[in-house]
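Methods — Computational structure assignment.
A single polypeptide chain was analysed. Its primary sequence is given first, followed by the predicted tertiary structure written as structure tokens.
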Amino acid sequence: MDTPGSRPDWLVEATIGELSEAMASGKATSVGIVMAYLERIAKYDREGPCLNTVLEINPDAVQIAEALDAERGRTGPRGPLHGIPVLIKDNIDTRDKMHTSAGSVALADSYAPEDSFVAAKLRQAGAVILGKANMTEWANFMTRDMPAGYSSRGGQVLCPYGPGKFTCGGSSSGSGAAVAANLVTAAIGTETSGSILSPATANSVVGIKPTVGLVSRRGIIPIMTSQDTAGPLARTVSDAATVLGAVAGVDEGDPATLTSTGKAHSDYTQFLVKDALKGSRLGVPRECYARLDQEQLALMESLIERLRAEGATVVDPVELPEVKELTDNTAMLYEFKPALNAYLSKLAPHVPVHTLRELIQFNARDPQRMLRYGQVLFTAVDEKSGNLTDPEYIRSRARDVELSRARGIDRVVNSFRLDALVVPGNFGAGISARAGYPSVCVPGGYVQSGQPLGLTFTGLAYSEPVLIGLAHAFEQATKLRRPPDLDRQA
């Protein structure tokens, strides 16, 4: 690997494996990698196209990298991410000198007392937590009209493929855009319904939305207990698989992870099978293609043909009408209030809000800054009881599970003996989110304007090994990703 001087451009498209090899051989250090990324952040995130993806830099990042370099020299790497810089979405707790605010000014002075499970696992694997990524405020569950990537604390994230022209996706906007722009090696996002898959497709990166329960939610500002999960965003399937293995696992502090006992893997790179598409059976639910424009549809049709050329049996179409039936967010409205109140109640006394109602009132006192797009979802949620005994909630949640699982993905996958469903970008995110099932989005190319579109593989619970294999095989066969030209975008 070419690492001349302090020039940061050698990092462009560098993988975890390449960086690890460079550090092992002495051609690079974690300190040098961190500094090079910081130079790129200064050049492209704060100057040039001003992508605005990084909300906060970890003031200890360089010292942590220095300590990891010394540790490597003494005892070797502690894990697969030793010395690798990673960004964390701003709704994930870290115990260091960085805030956790969900992009809101209301929590601008809030410091978490301890690491989230995800942050702790990253440190155990040797990662350098480089900083916090900007995001759609409150993970886009504050109002109905907020643009993807906007927050009152951080401002607007821009897509590196067309700043101000193309959407950056949400709500893990900063995580996806920073990885795409080579401002960090990999990042952690969170998803309730589309918030990893959306920025993955919008920024031409790989996003893994895990099965709910594979990655602990402890220490993550919640939206919906039954659907929330965290997952990696990276430039390659291999890098995303490496990060997933580092953060997956059972956490006694999160009951959902108990279901992953015996199903979580510490190394998902073992499933990177280059010929995984050969002999696979893939279903195409055309209900997920209805919102594509003609150019996007033509691109997807070419990708489906490529899957066939690589040896997959494509069943087209498979009917999944439940996609259109799962339109209301009643269960989400009910679950948000008790989950958020539980998180806010534990914040330090100096933080100005400790309940959803106090948050609504805080925002109302400074509408010009806090309510640029309103808070209609907040006010709708506050009207709910918050105790989850309401018949409306119980029936809604039961309907979501029935439609998304037994009558939805389970039925189609089992009936047609499928390995996965194939959908465009995040257009099938809703049904897999309601089911709590995994998806892997991989770059699928670009339309004539240069806007990216991803190809997403979705499967049954804990089918990450299969999905990662399929995504890797597609990626290696097509190699469609290209880095954005940030100098031209400036």
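Note: The chain is about 35% helix and 10% strand.
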